[in-house]
Fold Hydrolase.
Amino acid sequence: MKITISLAQMDIHFGQQAANFARIESFVAQAANEQADIVVFPEMWNTGYDLTRFDDIADADGAETKKLCQSLAKKYHIMIHAGSVATKRHQQFFNTTYVFDENGQLLTTYDKVHLFGLMHEDDFLAAGNQKNRFEVKGTPATSVICYDIRFPEWLRTLSLSDSRIIFVPAEWPTSRIPQWKRLLAARAIENQCFVVAVNRVGADPDNDFGGNSVVIDPLGNELLTLGSEETLKTVTIDISETDEARGFMPVFADRRPDLYE
Ligand SMILES: NC(=O)CCC(=O)C(=O)O
């Protein structure tokens, strides 16, 4: 099975949801024009980390995000991994991923599990506590968000449902891009799967963000690496490479979960 994936490495207007909503159609249209099966956006692309204003600007129950992405998915007949967006539910705020199929149907919802204290998420957001699993052209996949990649036990837990692709939307600062690359490669190698990671570019009042969105194969090779400019790039992956990696070295079968508690 081959899957064509577009990485929408966008800049984000700080706290301006309407402006960010207005920008995504051009990325979706370009991805569809490049025959992509799925287009992937970065973390919290609706507002950025304008945390103190979330009461005014976070998307209530993700309703606006869902309406927009469902209509774009249907219009361009393409799956949309909507990165993540700031959402509001029951008087709490979340950093939430939505994934839509090419008919606009919502396939999964995931709230970021590990909140990132260095960017004050834990002061403003509630943490998620649920796994997620969905399919891209019949291939099992899962999603985490940014800081989650520093928790290999969480990605392993998600991978045990036979995920062959791990998606990672991010707002990862420029100063730690070398760690971003190494962590993502390690997660791909140890889980013997593809990693599709989309970082934002540009800056907010506290950080510069370094792009370097990347698609990594199950052996840790970078198949596509973006620079630090706003852009969309497309690559095709071959899922049979995950079977080859797992057949050659049966890491999942060799696990000793009885010793891991
Ligand atoms: N938005 C984030 O979760 C950033 C995580 C990060 O920068 C890290 O170093 O981890």
